Hints:
Blueprint: E1 3-6, E2 16-21, E3 24-34, E4 40-43, E5 52-55, E6 61-65, H1 67-70
Antiparallel strand pairs: 1-6, 2-3, 2-6, 3-4, 4-5
Amino acid sequence: MALRIHHTWHPVIGQRVQMWCSGIIGREGIADAVTLDDAILWIAGGVLQPPMTFQRTDGFDVWIDYRWESRKGAPA
Length: 76
């Protein structure tokens, strides 16, 4: 998996993301919603984890696996 930082948060809605802050992973999950100003991102809840919000002002960055990079060489 080739994770890359994604500077705009709104386009990652519905994607599996990792939220990082100061080199530490805060949470991994599906981006459920993002505010219009890209300031807050919600990760959907799961069986064992409740939904969670992350704020850009707290220093969080969103990382995603760019599918087109991880599938190079795979048949279409």
